[in-house]
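Reading a protein record of the kind used here takes little practice once its layout is understood. An example of such a record is reproduced below.
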Amino acid sequence: MKNFKSLALMLMFILVLGVLAACGGSEEEPAAEEGNNSEEGTNAEGSEEVSGPIAIDGSSTVFPIMENLTYTYNQENPDVNVTVNSSGSGGGFKKSTVGEIDLSNASRPIKEEEMATAEENGIQLEELELAYDGLSVVVSQQNDFVEELTIDQLKQIFLESSEAKMWSDINPEWPEEEIKIFSPGHDSGTFDYFNEVILEEEPMKEGENTTLSEDDNVLVRGIENDPNAIGFFGYAYYAENEDVLKVLGISEDGNEAVKPNPETIQDGSYTPLSRPLFTYVNVNAYKEKPQVRDFVEYTLNNAGKAAEEVGYVALPEDKYQEQLETAKSWAE
């Protein structure tokens, strides 16, 4: 009998412990569910998650900045599929003015006829400035005779109307070797800029000693192993390849030659080859596609850092924030 009572008491004690444990567990679960609900549908910054495609094309000069931005953006927004191509500023505008892409990168401002085409197609393109660049004139590190050039010497080298073919035609102390030219192609904003500020819209030499390409890496590879080659492209491509390329100082109006670097590009002393870099936003896409709006705002918040990481010069921070407020007004 005594054993029976002891067994009964033990069973009652176990039952009470079970009830208490169940009650304690039931109090924890609602708190856990509340925490799960608070994170559902948000990204790392607490805003709504976005998804879908974004199409970007245009300048090969701006490409490194945009490539950097899309990589870091996708780390935070893996459901957004951003494609970035580099068909040149003109190539990008051919697509953006008919609504084929969402952002059009450019190393020159949009031309009046390009804007007119966009308006005819009901496309509103708005300009955003991303960074500063110094268009860099370069030779191979194997070239041991050129350190700087004047604007007039650049014209002798590149103008179709010039009779200079040998380096010795530019300076009698230089070798009697043919000059090999490597230039961005005609769809490139870099070509347009060089053509405007150096060649003054006169035709550039073309032929067997001239290589044109919208791919700046093609130009780099062509110049690096030829001591008689010369070419030009955005500063970031020189900075990335300074172990095999030599950047030349440029002098104007008898002034001392200046080489491009972050300081001379930002303060404007590297003249006339310092310039801003742009992207043009399809405002309809910005309004109608949340992923485009999110990416544009991410770009303006991070373009300065991206520009410096790839070798360009950031704008003042207040310039990015001013443009960000302008962009947000497009959706109103």
Remarks:
- The first strand starts at residue 52 and ends at 58.
- The CA atoms of residues 5 and 11 lie 10 Å apart.
- The chain has two domains: 52-133+276-330, 134-274.
- The domain at 52-133+276-330 is CATH 3.40.190.10 (D-Maltodextrin-Binding Protein; domain 2).
